[in-house]
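Ticket #4471: structure export looks truncated?
Reporter: QA, pipeline team
Priority: medium

Steps to reproduce: submit the single chain below to the structure queue and open the exported record.
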Amino acid sequence: MGNFFEALLWRSRLVVILAVIASLVTAFAMFYIATVDAWYMVVHLVDYASPDMEAEARVALRATTVTHVVEIVDGYLLATVMLLFSLGLYELFISKIEAAEGNENSSQVLMITSLDDLKARLAKVVMMILIVRYFEFALSTSFSTALDMLYFAMGIAFLGLALYLSHKADEH
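Actual output as written to the record:
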């Protein structure tokens, strides 16, 4: 009876495959969305070089384009998080990905050895998403007082400190 229960318990880890598949589908969806956004952004830039475009319209198009680029980067980073999460769950709970371990082109980023390793890799990508989001926020913010600028500068300083501390943690 004990062996049966242990075998059942061991096989129950395979339920994680649902999270792996859902995460992978979500990653593909985010890659698709970000790619479509990039395509439409590029298509709309055709008018940017038009001699008929007024200077104000060109400045507005440029500002909108920069915002779209930040959103596209954000989409790709989110897709990367979901892909890393999917690969990490698979390697931790289902099986090692032998194709990645034996391939000279595989990145060490994609090989997850522990739950802490997965969390650390995801945390780095999430940090990059937060930085991109802060940049996106900065593009859409109008600063009306010196205090607004000070708060914004403090936010940048905190982001820099967070990056510094995360790199210091990697060195140990």
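Status: closed, not a bug. The export was complete when the record was re-opened. Leaving a note from the reviewer for reference: The chain has a mean pLDDT of 84.
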